Amino acid sequence: MNAELRVDAGRLIEFGTAVYAGAGVPEDDAQVLADTLVQADLWGHQSHGVLRLGWYLERIRNGVMRPITAPEFVVDAGAVALIDGHDGIGQVLAQFAAREAIRRAKAHGIAAVGLRYSNHFGTCMYYTRMAALAGCVMLLTSNGGPAMAPWGGRKKIIGTNPWSVAAPAGRHAPFVMDMANTGVARGKIYLARQQREPIPLGWALNAAGEPTTDPQEAIDGIILPMGGHKGYAIAMMVDVLSGVLTGSGFLSAVHSPYKTAEKSNAGHLLIALDIAAFQPLAQFGARMEQYISELKSVPLAKDCDEVCYPGEIEARNERRNREQGLSFPADTLADLERIARATGLVAKLPFAAGAAQSV
After folding, report:
1. Which of 41, 170, 274, 336 is 20 to 30 Å from 344 at the Cα level?
2. Distance (Å, rounded) from C-alpha 247 to C-alpha 15?
3. Any alpha helices (H) in 210-345, and if so which ranges?
4. Do residues 336 and 349 lie in contact, with contact meaning Cβ atoms separated by under 8 Å?
5. How far apart are CA 209 and CA 69, in angstroms?
6. Is the pLDDT confidence value at 63 over 70?
7. 247-300 residue pLDDT tens
8. For residues 193 and 216, is the Cβ–Cβ distance under 8 A?
9. Cβ atoms within 10 A of the Cβ of 223, count?
C-alpha cells in the first residue's frame, strides 16, 4: 500500500452511494450499503470493505439482489418476529432487523428477530454495535455460501457462517466480537489475492486436499475451520439458527456474494437483550469498565505491548483512519476507477484517476 495516497472516508461513501443509486437503489439505501463497506475499511477490515463494492453492484445488475428492498413480516408477535427479505439488499435488511430487535427488546426485555431470503450484509459488527450503542447486548448469526467441508469430508458445503456479540462498555468503545467459523474469513483470502501476497499455511487446502499458500488455490479449494472440529460444530449451529430456523437456505443452498449471478438465500438471526431489564445501564457500564481494567492488569506475555478487548483495535483504527484517510492496495483503487468509468462517475472518485498506477 502507498502511505502517501490517502482516501477520505466521507468522499468514498459519497462515491459508493452514487454508484448504487445509479443502479436503481433508493438514495438512503444506497448510502447504507456504501457506509457499511467504508466502515469496514475504517475498522481495518478491508476484506469486507470497498473491495466488495463491485460485487454487490454486479449482483444488483444480474437481478439476484433486488435494488428495491421490501421487508415483509411473516411473524409479528411482540418479542418475536420473522421477516422475509425477498432478496433485497442484505445491509438494508440487516439494519432494519437490528432496529426491530432493539425496539422489541426495549419493550419486552428480550427479542428475537429472524430474517430469511436476505443477502450478504458485510460485517456482522456493524449491526450488533448498533445495539450496544442503544444500551443492549446483541447476538447475530448469519450463514453463507459453501467454503469448508464437514469434518472428515472433502466437499465444501458449509459456509464461513459468521457471528457477532456486542455490548456497551461504559466509557470505553463497545465490546464487540465478530468472527467467522473458518480459521479466516474468506474475504481475507480475496484481499491477499488483491495484494498479490501468499496466505499462511493452515488457512486452506487446494482442490486436491493439500495445504496451500496460494490465495487462488484456496478460493478454488477448501477453507479450514477454526479450532478444528469445534469451529465446524459452531458453523453448523450458526447455519441451523440462521437458515433452518428462519426458513431460509442452508448448507449448499446458500450462495456467496462472490457468485454474482446466483441468488443468495442467506438467513440471519438477531437476539437483543435490553440491559436495563437486568440492571441499571450505568451499573452495567461500570462493571464493564471494571472487567476491562482487570483484563488489562495482567502481566504481559513476551513481545506483547498490551492486552486489548474485542472491538478496541477497531475503534482505534477508525479514529486514525478518519483523521489520516484510508490507504488501499493498487488493485482495489484500480477496481474503483474501473467502476467509476463504467458508471460515468469518474468525477465522483475520491482520488485522482490513474492514481492506482503509482501505488
Report:
1. 41
2. 36
3. 215-220, 229-239, 281-296, 312-324, 330-343
4. yes
5. 40
6. yes
7. 999 999 999 988 899 999 999 999 999 999 999 999 999 999 999 999 999 999
8. yes
9. 28
